[in-house]
Amino acid sequence: MERNYVIIGNPENRRVDFFQRALISQGMGPATVLSYEEVFKRKLKINNLIKDGSVIRVESPGENFNVEREIIALGHEAGDISGEKARRLEYEKGRIFYPTQWYHGFTRLQEAIWKVNSSVRGLVWMNYPLDILTMFNKPICQQLLASKLVRVPRSLREVSGYEDLRCKMESHSLKRVFVKLFCSSSASGICAYQYEPKSNREILISTMEISPRDGEFVFYNSLKIKRYTEKIKIKVILDWICSQGAQVEAWIPKESTNGYVFDLRVLAVGEKAAHRVPRLSKSPMTNLHLGNKRGDIKSLGLTDDEINEALMEAEKAAAVFAGSHYKGIDVLISSESHKPYIVDINAFGDLLPGIAYDGMDTYTYEIVKLTNVKVINCE
Amino acid sequence: MEENFGITNQPKHNNKINYSKRRISMITRRLALSYDECEEGKTFEGLLEEFYKDPTSKDVEYLVIGPWQETWENSSKFIVDNLVENKDKLPNIKGLFVGDMESEDCEISWIIQCDLSPLLKAFPNLEELKIRGSSGLRLSALQHEKLKTLIIECGGLGSDVIDDILESRLPNLEHLELYLGVDEYGFNGTIENLKPFMKKGLFPKLKYLGLKDSEIQDEIAQEIADSEILDQLHTLDLSLGTLTDKGAESLLKSIRIKNLKFLDLNYHYMSDDMMEKIKSLGIEVDVSEQQEDEEYNDEIYRYPAVTE
């Protein structure tokens, strides 16, 4: 039986286009696309666009400023600015706007999407909105993984700011940590921070930039990695991330090959590790859009056993979100020991153009696996 | 960790170490403490103890010391003391590399070394000593009959270490490679401190001289271009620094430079035009990794490859 696919996303985004092409390649008709902008215009009444038995794919709302503004407006209760003010925000390249308020709005949006589940029968979700919310909340996600005995870096909880961070690092014997904005994606608001107590030197490596405005600071992401060594700037950045909510965890040295450190992005589909791509970087940030390069998993100097161990750990993490059909999992390989650690799970982590598994791209593979699963269930 | 203790000619982490062809034929062992082992409370002393117990350790010819616990707090002294104390268990050591770690483990300028001279005394058959990190480093009363290769990789080499090397007695030294770095990370000398390396007589067998990764790379190039030392070298290594057309012009004009077999200028700030001229010197050259000036507030900034 051919299923009716519905994508909730930003139609102009290549993610939607790639998925449509994958459907067509499997001889299916294209999905109905429900744009986030439409969702907002209809005041979230999406029921009449979704039929019984539809497969729903919730896509990233990113890279569309109208949608970003609406999400921030939706989160006004938790936030810094009113809904009207949020809708009047002007686009600034790279600017990180009100993360706490954004996440609150994003939560309300996903909850509203999820509500459709109770009014339409037999829906198949490629990713559960509630899973998406958990995956987007790094401290909660890492705690959940740790509670399921997935190997994750040691975390510092409830860090309130720079001074508190230094105290907690000292008492937990950590000199190097990653401080991540709690709801970030794509290296946004991520800092590698280290200090050296003897001479009191410190370094913060991040894509973040700060700029003073009207007696405050505004925060940006750039595509360039910056090194901060002045306490005054480091403090501004860390205080702000912590004020929004931070995931702070041990900076485990990553394994390297030919002068590049690497981690693995593994796409788990139906809990099985499928597509995998090593991400090679000269900095502690491995995200591919920062100009880092893809590697070949066979030439990393890892043994087959070590690769399998990493993939198994990724599958263990994937199983924690068993209700979601796919997720992109970042696996760090500890230098020297080659032990895998799960450092991130991305709800929209399947944008891996050009990477094949079983001869299929990520989207095609997800569709084929979903179809297979359902066929087996019908029998 | 176990694999690290199996005897092997091809170490597991060979991607981290620049092995020359000669060294690959040596029986090599790399000792390194991982994050995981640190978390379990293991120490580098423990790794050394296990290593000495291993009956094959006595055959090891090249020993690589990777990350130890809290490298930014603990100097390498406890390792040096330990190796010196146990030198009789390592009768075949010909090569040592102290501090084989990447910035992901510890920033190069944060690695704390110590006076490594006791190692040279303890291992009279040493042919190669490679050091990464210059903070706290000394090579006092440096004297060794057999040492052929000395390499110091760092973000800034202090004058005290440079003086230690200038005052040393290393009659068999063939290969000297010094990363000079920048003042912010420990380079506190001037071209005057480096001039003695450019005269004959200091190291009679020297064939490879690297005065590299320097923020005064132009001055070094200008000074060395027509110096006596070039008559005995096969390789001059001025790579990884801030070499521009200014320094390169002097190299180009030098007659002595043509006696070299290899001129290494990899990572530089030369113009395309100058690169072409250097390529036509008639000797083997490396002018890869051309860098671009950084401009900020109408000032031009150039950096060596390895600093922090």
Secondary-structure element pattern of chain A, one letter each: EHEHEHHHEHHEHEEEEHEEEEEHEEH
Percent of residues in helices of chain B? 10-25%
The helical percent of chain A reads 25-40%
Number of helices of chain A: 11
Query: Largest inter-chain interface?
Result: A-B, 25 and 24 residues
Overall shape of chain B: it is globular
Sheet with the most strands, sense and barrel status of chain B:
10 strands, parallel
Describe this entry's structure for a reader.
Chain A is of the alpha+beta class. Chain A contains 11 helices and 16 strands. In chain A, the strands form 3 sheets. In chain A, strands 5-10-6-7-8-9 form a 6-stranded antiparallel sheet, with helices on both faces. Chain A is globular. The C terminus of chain A is likely disordered. Helices cover 24% and strands 17% of the residues of chain B. In chain B, 47% of the residues are buried. A 10-stranded parallel sheet of chain B has the order 1-2-3-4-5-6-7-8-9-10, with helices on one face. Chain B is built from 11 helices and 12 strands. The two termini of chain B are 29 Å apart. In chain B, strand 9, helix 11 and strand 10 form a beta-alpha-beta unit. With 308 residues, chain B is α/β, with parallel strands linked by helices. At the A-B interface, strand 11 of A face helix 3 of B.
